[in-house]
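Hi F.,

I've been meaning to write this up properly since the lab meeting, where we talked about keeping a consistent format for the predictions we share between groups. The idea is simple: the sequence comes first, exactly as it goes in, then the structure tokens exactly as they come out, then a line or two of notes. No screenshots and no reformatting. I'm using this chain as the first example so we have something concrete to point to.
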Amino acid sequence: MMGAGKAVVSLFTLLFMMTGLAAAAETPAPEWQTRLAQILPLLGHRNWIMIVDSAYPLQSSAGVETLETNSDQLEVIRTVLSAIDNSIHVRSIVYLDAELPFVPEKDAPGVTAYREGLRAALAGHTITALPHEQIIAKVDEVGKTFHIVVLKTNMALPYTSVFLQLSAKYWSDDAEAQMRKAMSNAAAK
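Output, unedited:
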């Protein structure tokens, strides 16, 4: 049988361990994930979320909100796409830099593994590749009117940014085109 002193020590040890487990279970999400959860319901058609490398410049447009994630880029991509996919109101249109497939491994060690990881992270999503400058021009124009969220990662490889243009989940591009055609036909009569 255990003495009273040993029982008290064992009880305190057990309580200390339980407190530590509870604290670990309640570890808050990183600040960027908390902010994403707050802002995603406010975002809609024509807003953008950009997941960018560490050298992406801080933009000065009023509509651009930049958050440092201090996280792995593929992890951020998976987290953001999951949040969008689980939303009721938005879907993502994915843009990648057309330069990415041409970045050689010898000049950017790790780019091949990144491309493979990115392919897996974007599985099931339609991807549009455009030259980097064209995507930036689109973003610059959109930023004059609509909110853009930039999530900077610890990625240190060129042309690896992922640009997500948001669109209405409950209204497809085909439905929009059909409606516009019906409107045009009605106006022509």
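Notes:
The CA atoms of residues 79 and 114 lie 16 Å apart.
The beta strands are 48-52, 64-68, 90-97, 127-130, 148-152, 162-168.

If this format works for you, I'll send the rest the same way.

G.
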